[in-house]
Amino acid sequence: MKITDILSPDMAIADLKGATKPEVLNELAKALAAKYKEIKLADLTAVLAERERLGSTAIGDGIAIPHGKLRGVTKIIGVFGRHAQGVDFDSLDGGPSQLFFMLVAPEDSASLHLKALARVSRLLKDGAFRSRLLAAKDSAELYSLIKEEDNKY
Question: Is there a contact between 75 and 113 (Cβ–Cβ < 8 Å)?
């Protein structure tokens, strides 16, 4: 599975504005709902909020991977966002989250959903790569860096 199968160039956001966890989740969900007409924003935000209630998707090192399964979605899709200052996302390490990779999967895609989560997690594990993402000048460079890193695997 390639990240570029999940993430399109227009789904890389360099300057998230939300100041809180719900605001960032909503900002990312809005981007997906605007691109994929089968997604109803209210349904997606409800699924994401429910998932966050089970436990934070912020895994530490400034990374959060909010995700959920949604009826009507036919393939795994994603949006990547960067927040310059970082947001309290109830991270496991207590630090702010700056890099967000939201994944949305069809309701019946358990194994593919897990593979996508593992792939994104592996991609963002590299500290040098995270530093390059944080230093990228715009959305196009963010996508280019992700694509370049994705091609290594």
Answer: no
Q: Position 143: which residue type?
A: Y
The answer to whether residue 67 is catalytic is yes
Amino acid at 97: S
Which amino acid, 15?
A: D
Q: Alpha-carbon torsion 38, 39, 41, 44, what sign?
A: positive
Distance CA 10, CA 8 (A): 6
CA-wise closest residue to 27 among 37, 41, 6: 41
CA distance linking residue 89 with residue 77, whole number of Å: 22
- By DSSP bridging, strand 67-69 and strand 97-105 are parallel
Indicate which residue of 3, 24, 45, 67 is catalytic.
67
pLDDT in tens, 53-109: 999 999 999 999 999 999 999 999 999 999 999 999 999 899 999 999 999 999 988
